[in-house]
Specification:
single chain; alpha/beta; FAD/NAD(P)-binding domain; 5-stranded parallel β-sheet; 15 helices; 30 strands; binds flavin-adenine dinucleotide
Length: 567
């Protein structure tokens, strides 16, 4: 990498754009670098916006990471705020810019152009939407400020959040935490569609426990605004009155400029780039929320609007403009988020995605604590692991819990990126002392369990199969204690506590398949090994009564919370 006299124009002054500019300057002192941003600030923390509304971040100033002047001076950049790129001429290598302050437009030439214009909020064309007085989508600081002003108004008591994805959930929590009554409407049968439904059952139960008025599989059909209040009518017939509506129905890539330049747009709607992040026209690169990226597990291209990938892509593009041809590779779309007192995280493919793409998989559920039980404040977590049933290659992982979820999802993300199998999870040499983990870290444990499944040491059945088991040919055997059994049980199951099993084998029919279960799947695994070696046909209920009952509670059924319930 060497100094050059090239002129690099960058569109978008936030995560992707600002990172490209500063990295490029560190590599090349001579390049002319122009950073165009249509807003009047750059390098701002959109991920912090919900927490600004919830008063966790108190000052708006904390949301602007660096001022345009500070960044321009430190990195010798030509930073132009209030400057919107409105057209591109790839043949002449020119970009048309509107100076929003002066109301003037002008062309500027480039040698290399980087597009990082982000994504925009999807606004559903709901009847009556134009009449709603306090309706916002959260994309930038001014949206956050407007929402905060409404939230802080003493007349405001109720809010409606439409959409239960990342932003919808963060907004629900933060608006609720500052004292408003929040209704959340989601058209799917689960929140956080990036995860699988049994994992989000815990989140849904938690949201209800916190007092959120949750409406799943429902949608707003129309709004009626009157006397400072809006009534939202739902498909189900429910009517929700609120003082504030937050539209969080997803984002789509910002591709207007790319379309004007006739750049190839992929099937997911994002700008198509090659492995070097160059678009279909030479010397035009694109990164961040505006592009689609190869998914590490499925190999197809998807829109994965997350800050980490945007920053890493920026680094690759800067390196490439400075002369080194580096490939970006793929993304596992790893994310983590706070949902009130819980943490939800995913890396790699979900079960839904594996099904959609026809990839054969198996799964395991493990319950662990963030560190040893005997050290104070050990937090529970459920880990779902998805893997190749033959090779054990890891496809994806999801975790719901509290403390310690962050480091486990990161270890699993690194494992997937490195192409590890469940067998290698067992061997990971992870740090341990009582305040931090257990001698067998939750990631090791997830590896042990998945390894047993791949090796055929245990066969498993899952929560969604339980209700369709035929009692003529299958017996569900509950091996928990008498007390646990009294608290709640799977209908039709037989009860023999694990410690009595060896003495009561004659009570178990030999002409039926036995499905063993306990609360989390550990004692029932021991039971399954005893029975298997006694000649029974056995499957273990992975995730046990814990996962099964969380799903049932989520469906409104009367199933008790257990010691392993996280909600
Ligand atoms: P952006 O950061 O959106 O930047 C695009 C910039 O381009 C904007 O400043 C825009 O004004 C400017 N622009 C657009 N068009 C033009 C034009 N024609 N001319 C000039 N300028 C233009 N991700 C996570 O990984 N974790 C989180 O917790 C998280 N939380 C989030 C919370 C909220 C409320 C939001 C809105 C996003 C969150 N994200 C989170 C997503 C993350 O912020 C984005 O993935 C990331 O910012 C993408 O970077 P980008 O550079 O592609 O786009």
């Amino acid at each position: 990498m060497s100094k050059s006299s090239q002129k690099v124009m960058i569109v978008g002054g936030n995560a992707g754009g600002a990172t490209t500019a500063t990295r490029l300057r560190r590599l090349d002192e001579e390049a002319e670098i122009v950073l165009l941003e249509k807003r009047n600030y750059i390098s701002w923390a959109n991920c912090g916006l919900p927490y600004f509304i919830g008063d966790v971040i108190e000052s708006r100033k904390q949301l602007v990471v660096k001022s345009p002047e500070a960044i321009a001076e430190r990195y010798d950049l030509d930073v132009r705020t209030n400057s919107e790129a409105i057209d591109i001429d790839p043949e002449r290598k020119g970009i048309l810019i509107e100076d929003r302050e002066k109301g003037e437009t002008y062309w500027e030439s480039y040698d290399k152009l980087v597009l990082s214009p982000g994504a925009k909020a999807v606004m559903l064309p709901i009847s009556g939407i134009d009449e709603v007085e306090n309706l916002y989508a959260l994309r930038d600081i001014s949206d956050a400020r407007s929402i905060k002003e409404v939230v802080q108004s003493s007349r405001v008591e109720r809010a409606l959040v439409i959409g239960g994805g990342f932003i919808g959930l963060e907004m629900t929590e933060n608006i609720h935490e500052v004292g408003l009554k929040v209704s959340l409407v989601e058209m799917m049968d689960q929140v956080l569609p990036a995860m699988d439904p049994e994992m989000t059952s815990m989140l849904q139960n938690h949201l209800r426990n916190k007092g959120v008025d949750l409406h799943l599989e429902d949608r707003v059909t129309n709004f009626e605004q009157k006397d400072g209040m809006v009534k939202a009518n739902l498909d189900s017939g429910s009517e929700l009155e609120s003082d504030l509506v937050v539209m969080a129905t997803g984002v789509k890539p910002n591709v207007e400029l790319a379309e004007k330049a006739d750049l190839e747009i992929g099937e997911s709607g994002g700008i198509r780039v090659d492995e070097f992040l160059e678009t279909s026209k030479s010397d035009i690169y694109a990164i961040g929320d505006a592009i689609e990226v190869k998914n590490c597990t499925t190999g197809d291209h998807r829109h994965m609007p997350l800050a980490g990938p945007a920053n890493r892509q920026a680094r690759v593009v800067a390196n490439n403009i400075a002369g080194s041809w580096e490939e970006y590779g793929c993304s596992s779309a790893t994310f983590i988020m706070k949902v009130f007192s819980l943490t939800a995280a995913r890396t790699g493919a979900s079960e839904k995605v594996l099904k959609e793409t026809g990839i054969d998989y198996e799964k395991s559920y493990t319950f662990s604590r963030s560190h040893v039980d005997y050290y104070p404040e050990a937090d529970p977590m459920w880990i779902k692991l998805l893997f190749d049933p033959e090779s054990g290659d890891i496809y994806g992982a999801q975790i719901v819990g509290d403390g310690g979820v962050d480091k486990r999802i990161d270890v699993l993300s690194a494992a997937i990126k490195s192409g590890l199998s469940v067998f290698q999870l067992r061997d990971l040499d992870l740090a341990y002392a009582p305040p931090y983990s257990s001698a067998n870290d939750p990631v090791n444990v997830a590896g042990f369990v998945a390894e047993n499944i791949v090796d055929g040491v245990v066969e498993v059945t899952h929560w969604h199969d339980v209700d369709s088991l035929d009692s003529e040919s299958t017996l569900i055997l509950d091996v928990r204690s008498d007390m646990e059994r009294k608290e709640g049980q799977i209908e039709g199951s037989k009860h023999i506590p694990l410690n009595q099993l060896r003495d009561r084998l004659d009570e178990i029919p030999r002409d039926k398949k036995i499905v063993t279960h306990c609360n989390i799947g550990l004692r029932s695994y021991i039971a399954s090994r005893i029975l298997l070696q006694e000649g029974f046909e056995v499957e273990n209920l992975s995730g046990g009564y814990g996962i099964y009952s969380a799903v049932r509670r989520d469906r409104g059924e009367d199933y008790p919370m257990m010691s392993c319930s996280i909600e």
